Amino acid sequence: MNTQSPLPAPGAPLQHYVSIAPFDLQSVEAMTPEQSKVFQASQLRLMWWKFRRHRLALISGIFLAALYLGILICEFLAPYNLHTRNMDYIYSPPQRVHLFHNGQFVGPFVYGRQMTLDMDTLKRNYMDKQDDVQRIRFFCKGDSYLFWGLIEGDRHLVCPAENGQLFLAGTDRLGRDVLSRIIYGARISLTIGLVGIAFSFVLGIVIGGLAGYHGGVFDLIVQRVIEVLQSIPSIPLWLALAAIMPITWSPILIYFGITVILGLLHWTGLARAVRSKLLALREEDYVLAAQLMGASSSRIIRRHLIPGFMSHLIATATISIPGMILGETALSFLGLGLRAPTTSWGILLTEARSVSVIAFYPWLLLPILPVILVILAFNFLGDGLRDAADPYR
């Protein structure tokens, strides 16, 4: 380290002092291991690190991943077959799971039930028989089923005891297990959101991208069409579109018809988001360079503009999926969407349209619980993805 010397006299030549220590570039540019890790990380890794700090979004993502993996094996997860009827246990309330009987550990079990009929109200009353211990079986043989309608099987994750009953969420008016029907209904209610958002995703990106990149008359027409669609009340529009589908269609055709309806209703918001982004990005220098090199409009939008805000589009789509699920639930609840024998959460809720049914058998409202949890999970996941879309902020 050089020491300071007194200033030279006026007019005297300026003396230079140079350190004779060797110059070490690494000592100047040295970074801590944490800084080096961040500096060398990719964009995707930075987004993951930021998303991981959003605890609610991370938990919601794990929850939704487990649900979507579960719909692949819902036949195995459900205790009963979708159409199994227990006529001796109509409108049976949910059973409680116990671990101890008379102070001794038995394992998970339920008590057997005995039904009595109230002749004044004609209501079925069920009483637990404390001497009838029915142990719950795991990875067992139970009702037969067709796995995805193709492969025969009879293995279940959870089964009732031999000649016993297991109604953890109660039964409906035909004695069908509500929990099993909720698990089967998840396959339709969860996938219809993904299929519908894929349809609206394509419409929103194509129409919004062309409107934002070219502008002019096409942009003006698209904006007026979007305003007209958004000004129409949702329920009358659902009624009109649902009435178009013939009642002779099979459940599969009705399923795809509902997804098309939901896609037609939800592309407008995404199209406006894409348009606003492209209006800002089309003035960038790299867009002008691509135009001068002879790139077509579709290639510029597809290869240069859309990837620039794809993370924002993914977050927007994630937040839009709950609207699709709610739309299917509302249509099916009103009797305008899917119909039996197809099973969804909306169809299950049609069992609880009567006030008297809700008063006597409130467990028939349990299908609303997974709807609420899925909607909240998607909203939290969308918030986390939106924050992680810009990891440098």
3D architecture notes:
This protein is α+β, with helices and mostly antiparallel strands and 393 residues long. It is built from 15 helices and 5 strands. It has helices at 25-29, 33-39, 43-52, 55-70, 74-77, 178-214, 216-231, 234-244, 251-281, 285-292, 297-305, 310-333, 345-349, 355-360, 368-388; strands at 98-101, 104-118, 123-135, 137-147, 151-159. The strands form 2 sheets. A 3-stranded antiparallel beta sheet has the order 1-2-3, with no helix packed on it. A two-stranded antiparallel ribbon has the order 4-5. The longest helix is centred in the middle third of the chain and has 37 residues, at 178-214. The chain is flat.
Average pLDDT number? 82
Individual helix count: 15
Q: What is the SS-derived class?
A: alpha+beta
Give the overall shape.
flat
| Beta strand count | 5
Q: List the helices and strands in order.
A: HHHHHEEEEEHHHHHHHHHH
**N→C terminal distance:** 40 Å
Largest sheet: 3 strands, antiparallel
Q: List segments where confidence is low: pLDDT < 50 over at least 5 consecutive residues.
A: none
Major sheet: arrangement of strands: 1-2-3
Helix content: 40-55%
- What's the oligomerization state? single chain
Radius of gyration: 31 Å
Tell me the β content.
5-15%
